[in-house]
Every structure is written in C-alpha cells, then in structure tokens.
Model the fold of this input.
Amino acid sequence: MTAQDALMDLNMRGLVVPLFYFLFILATKFDFCIGHSPKALCREGGALLSFKKGVHDPSNRLSSWVGEECCNWEGFLCHNTTGHVLQLKLRSDVYDPTALPLGGNISSSLLDLKHLQYLDLSYNDFGSINIPKFFEYLDMTNVNLSKASNWLQVMNKLHSLSVLLLSSCELLAIDPLPHVNFSSVLILDLSENYFISSSFDWFVDRSSLTTLNLRSSNIHDQIPSHLRNMSSLRFLDLSNNYFASPIPDWLFHMTTLEHLDLRSNVFQGKLPNDIGNLSSITNLDLSDNALEGDILRYLGNLCAFQVSKFSHRRQGKSVEFLNLRGNKLSGSFPDTLGECRCLKDLDLGENWLSG
Done:
C-alpha cells in the first residue's frame, strides 16, 4: 500500500464519510443543485464575473460563465433555495491535453462569496492568493505559490478550514505564527515542496489534526518535537527528507498512529524498545535509513505486544504493511513473525540478517 493509498483510505474513513454524510443531511433538508438551478438565481454572479476577468483561460473553460444564473455555470454547486454559491471546482484535468490550466490572479472578489465552503483550484497556475474565510476545503495542489511569501498568514485567516492541500506548490518557507487561528484543520498536506526554512511552532496546539503529510519537503535536522502534541494524529508521512538523528522515543508513544512513513531519511542508531507501543499501527515504513540493532527484538515487540496487549480492543487488528529494507539491522529471521497475524506485506531486504 502506497502512502497516497493509505492517505486516501484514512481520509475516506476519518473525514470524507462524515463530510458526505453532512452534505447528504443538508441536501435532504435544504436541497442542493449542481450545474443548474431552475428555482434560484445566483446571488454572487457579479463577484464571479470579476474573478473571471482576472483569469487567463486559454482553453475557454469558463465559456459557460454568461447570463444571470451562475448555478448553470461550469464548476459550481449552489444552494437551491437561496442561490448562494457553496462550492467552486476549477481543478485542471492533467490527463486532458486540450484542457490547459487557468492562469492569472485569484481576484479579491472571491472574498464576497460569504457562503463558499469548498474551493478546488488545483493544477492551475495562479500568481496570488485571495481566499474567502468561510469554507472548509481548499485544494491548491500543484499551484505555483512561490511568490506568495505570506501564504501561511493567509491560511491562518481561514477559521473554518478542515482540509488544506498544498502539495507541490513550490513553497519555500514556513514562517512562525504569533497566533494560530485555523485550529479546525484535520488534514494538512504540505508534501513535495522545497522548504529552505521552516518553523513548526504553530504545530503546538494542533491536537485536532488527523493527517499530516510532509513528504519530500527538504526538511532537515530532527523531527519537530511539537508533533508529540497531536493527540489525534492517525497518518504521518515524513519520508524523503533529511532527518539525521535517532528516531525520538516519544514518536512511538503516539498510540493513535495508523500510518507512519519515515523512509528515505538519514535516521540512525537503534530503534527504541517503545516501538511496541504503536498499538494502532497498520502501515509502518522505516526503509532506507541507517537503523541498527537486533531485528528479532524489534519485531517481537511490535507484533507480540500488539496481539497480547491490544487484541481485545482492536479486534485482532495488527500491523499489515512493514518495510525495514535498506538498514543495518542484524540477527536471524525472527520466529515472532507468526504473531503478526494480519501481516500482508513484509520487506526486510538489504539488511545484515542471517539464518
């Protein structure tokens, strides 16, 4: 299972299902419409046309944006009674060579969309950020934000945000925040960026976060200690960075973790005995580091401890995917693997094993 698959799985189980349930209840009570609305005129047509003026649209994707009923326009979901715009989806189709990405600037007129909850501008090429404060989902994956030096300050104004996806946005810095406002974020993806400088002080009070993806983001030194305060975290991906230290003991006391990916760093030294405390873990990838020690002890702690101590609470669920390839682990092939009853995928290659 890849990190993306696991992320999708956790998102679906941890957030998307409740969101769809929420939308279903709203639709039942208030009646949404997608694409067209015979009952209501769009209330924010003027703001949207102002937004369109600042957009470079080489494929004419916004050609339907004419007339008064903007709920007929491409990419909208409106409230069928009030006519307010609730969702705006302008994701560029990377698999369609004729659908060129939108460009230009994100107009401040979007700030007039007071009821917007969901905004997807991913895989486009906008040069500035003016984002409404009132929505819950923002996906700007692959949007070049290298010139938006204030990106974190802008995001900090989004009090209702639950999902923030900023993967591959060419972000260069994570600046300190004197006060954190976007405390409702559950899923945060900052992967595939190139942080020259980074401050994770604003992680201190993020106890509600369930998913954090910092994969391939040029992060150095040690795992930020503030992560230990994320008491709800289930998915953590720190792979393909430059962490060059022993893995801290406290990481293995985050008992809510289901997916932990630390592969392709420079972690060294021995694994802590506390690895067995990962009582909820199903996917663990520590491959391509410089970890040392007796593999028998590590796997014995991870498998036997889970089964004996937690099977009554976890209904026999245990580690399913385990990758320790490319380290300096020694010892003989462990008999304790038989205690990993749910193990589906195991990779111990390129270690110093015997027997």
